[in-house]
Specification:
Helix content is 30%, strand content 24%. By secondary structure, it is of the alpha/beta class. The termini are far apart. InterPro entries: AMP-bd_C, AMP-bd_C_sf, AMP-binding_CS, AMP-dep_synth/lig_dom, ANL_N_sf.
Length: 509
């Protein structure tokens, strides 16, 4: 595997060895063998080049979990262009900002995203081309016979931009190279017992635009030549039926899924084909792991990761023994160290900021590579944890004010800026609160002195519905006359979180 320099080369190798084996299956019935997948990838790479997409050009992918997402993503990489997968539920303004920021020359949409994409590009001074799956604009890209593409010479070439982080300011795009993506795929492949092996049928319900679905799931499937069952969206009962119908043996999910399934009376029977459940993208409470494992009869293995690490850093599959509260030990080839407030290693057993080093790390944030690993290759994650004697990592807190809703990042300042556009709102402060279904939920405190609280709350809710993706919209709006502040005038979000804790304990009305 060390000779592979291009992620799309994984498909060519699988097609050469197992052309007639199924590679991708949609829950709706469509499928592609490895040979068919390779043909589609090669055709799209040729079509993109013919359409003027050159090496290094960015191509945005605004699609749900479908065959065309996979073929487009891999076709872009085969053409040595840069894939920019985005949430298909993004609002028009969000799409416009990401298109403009990335400088995308082409946006590939599907029927569910086409209207929003077209509205987004209409607002831009230099609009990119738009191709829509099911229309001639997309069919033309894959119409011509494939032509050979010169092999990628440098694995340090940029492969993908994924919008993430940005603890202050708007989300930034992490620059992931072929080297970083392939390194993490290989690190995952070296885990024993294996996360995924060649005989597995893997549930693909995690969004492919998210790094977890894109590389931890799809990348590992390509590497192992397993079968991926693509599911457009998670529905508790329908997804269980798909697991049974398709005999899914590996089920990668995000923590909110467990809340939906925990009360299922026939869960053990419906999980019959499953040998392993993988949970990532946000911490999972220890009691949930224990209860679910007992109820379903299937082991749940957790991991810790982040977009900047392509994404997997640890897994409980790497632990000497399973421990309550642990997110596992580092994958082969990844180093973890803890740093205190003074830049030194904390005392034994104390928590510190998690720093990581490995070939899987990103190359900084778009466009100039700022904020990447330091000169020695270490990247400070902004997360806080401690390591035990066995090397297992335990997460404690986040330095960042990021809110994670269903595994997706919500940046408070982005929501605050939108809320402050509402007439009558003088200031907004966003925090995350615990939520049984989504892990965290967005709560916004709105300073609107002299205004009718109910009217302001309704105006904020309506405005956010048009300007923000659903998962970023406030679950609750608290209208206040004043916000708590420090002596320097900064809003004390810690006090707001304290109010929420008191509210949860029933100490506030």
């Amino acid at each position: 595997m060390s000779a592979i320099r291009d992620v799309a080369e994984l498909v060519a190798n699988a097609a050469a060895d197992s052309p007639d084996r199924l590679a991708l299956v949609e829950a709706g019935g469509r499928s592609l063998t490895w040979a068919e997948l390779e043909d589609e990838v090669a055709r799209l790479a040729t079509g993109l080049t013919t359409a003027g997409v050159l090496g290094g050009h960015r191509v945005m992918i605004a699609q749900g979990n479908r065959l065309e997402f996979v073929t487009t993503y891999l076709g872009v990489l085969r053409a040595q262009a840069v894939a920019v997968p985005v949430n298909p539920g993004s609002a028009v303004g969000e799409l416009a900002r990401m298109i403009d920021d990335s400088g995308s020359r082409l946006v590939v949409a599907d029927p569910t995203t086409a209207a929003a994409v077209r509205r987004a590009v209409a607002d831009l001074a230099t609009p990119p081309r738009v191709a829509v799956v099911g229309e001639s604009s997309y069919d033309d890209l894959r119409a011509a016979p494939a032509r050979p593409v010169p092999p990628l010479q440098d694995p340090e070439k940029l492969a993908a931009l994924l919008y993430t982080s940005g603890t202050s300011g708007l989300p930034r795009a992490a620059m992931l190279t072929h080297r970083a993506l392939l390194a993490n795929v290989e690190q995952c492949a070296r885990v024993e017992p294996p996360m995924i092996h060649g005989d597995d049928v893997v549930l693909g319900v995690l969004p492919l635009f998210h790094v977890y679905g894109l590389n931890a799931v799809l990348g590992s499937v390509l590497r192992r030549r397993a079968k991926l069952v693509l599911v457009e969206r998670f529905d508790p009962q329908e997804t269980l039926a798909i697991i049974d119908d398709e005999a899914c043996s590996v089920v990668p999910v995000a923590p909110p899924v467990f809340a939906y399934w925990r009360g299922e009376p026939d869960l053990r029977e419906r999980m019959g084909p499953v040998r392993l459940i993988l949970s990532g993208s946000a911490p999972l409470a220890p009691e949930v792991v224990e209860e679910f494992t007992e109820h379903a009869g299937v082991p749940v293995h957790q991991g810790y990761g982040l977009t900047e690490a392509s994404p997997v850093v640890t897994s409980t599959l790497c632990s000497d023994t399973l421990q309550v509260g642990s997110v596992g030990a580092a994958l082969p080839g990844i180093e973890i160290r803890l740093v205190d407030d003074h830049g030194r290693a904390p005392d034994e057993g104390d928590a510190g900021e998690i720093s990581i080093r490995g070939a899987n790390l990103f190359s900084g944030y778009w466009p100039d590579g700022a904020g990447g690993p330091d000169a020695d290759g270490w990247f400070a994650t902004g997360d806080v944890g401690f390591l035990d004697d066995s090397g297992d990592l335990f997460l404690v807190d986040r330095l960042k004010e990021l809110v994670i809703v269903s595994g997706f990042n919500v940046y408070p300042v982005e929501v605050e800026d939108v809320v402050e556009e509402v007439a009558g709102v003088e200031e907004a402060a966003v925090i995350g609160v615990a939520d049984d279904l989504t892990g965290e939920a967005v709560v916004v405190y709105v300073r609107a002195p002299g205004q009718d609280p109910a009217a302001i709350a309704e105006a904020v809710r309506e405005h956010c519905a048009t300007r923000l993706a659903r998962f970023k919209q406030p679950a609750r709006i608290e209208v206040v006359d004043e916000l708590p502040r420090t002596v320097t005038g900064k809003v004390q979000k810690g006090r707001l979180r304290g109010l929420e804790r008191r509210r949860n304990l029933g100490l506030l009305e």
